[in-house]
Amino acid sequence: MEQPEKDRLTDALFDRELISGEQRITIKAYHSLGIFSLRNELSFLLYTAVLLFTSGIGILIYQNIDSIGHMAILALILVMTGICFYFCFKKAPTFRWEETFFESPTYDYLVLLATILSCIFIGYVQVQYEPFGPGIGVMTLLSAAAALFSGYYFDNRSALSIGVTGLIAFVGITITPRAVIDNNMYTTDAQTYTGIALAGLLAFWAEYAWRKNLKKHFRLVFDTFALHLAGLCCIKGMFEPYWFAMVPILAGACFYFYRKSHEVNAISLFVFALVYGYIGVNILMAKFIEATEFYEFFTVLTILAPVYFIASIFLFIKLIKRFNQQSDDRD
User: Fold this and answer.
1) Does residue 2 register a pLDDT over 50?
2) What was the pLDDT predicted at 198?
3) Which residue of 19, 58, 227, 274 shows the fewest CB atoms closer than 10 Å?
């Protein structure tokens, strides 16, 4: 009978003399009890509840806007936001640069709810009354600032992600899956360079905060956004007139995050650094064939395409296995 994975890991720790024989027996006895944690399931339900609640508010407003009135709706959202933040501030631990936790993880989702409601309130006020002038630029920036404050003060990754998404939206870029598939992330060529600059700023802040020990655990959040923003903007930029400028930027970004993935042991950065690099290489090959009019090579490449893609998948899987093996060795 095959030995369970947890027992194999326990034996590996014992073989490396990281645990004693008594600890080994205790760990195996604990594993044999079959105890499992419901934390992930409960967290998922709480997260779903927050999304359903905020979605329900939106539907309620849409269906009853004429009978309720704008001021009443704004007052209701403001009161709910204030109540949520009241309990968040009341239960939050003292702010520290290191990672902090609420006494109960439920309050993390209350922070998320308060953040979403505050963004809804700011957006509603701007759309209805335009206190910040025409457009949504200032509104987006204020929403991002509120979310970033909540993320840092309450040590909440979800609020932080909303804040970074707001910064990206502020420069006019949408990186949702639908926008990427429809090639509708932004409308002007200049936004390519704006997006790349913002990606560089996010990567710089992640490194700077890490060195200053300011919420070091947020590093992966900033690096993930920076990688996707740089990769998508560079790939889109390779279809614009000054596409050749994107080649060294994309190569540099992929190399940087490839190295960073090993440094922070993040397989997500590793995988997407390879994916964006692979897409960039294929686009570059297509442009080379188009520029040189070497269509005979294109014909040969079409014939060999199945072999090329199978070899690419095989190499991709091999690199991931190697990364996981190196991660286990570092652990």
Assistant:
1) no
2) 95
3) 58
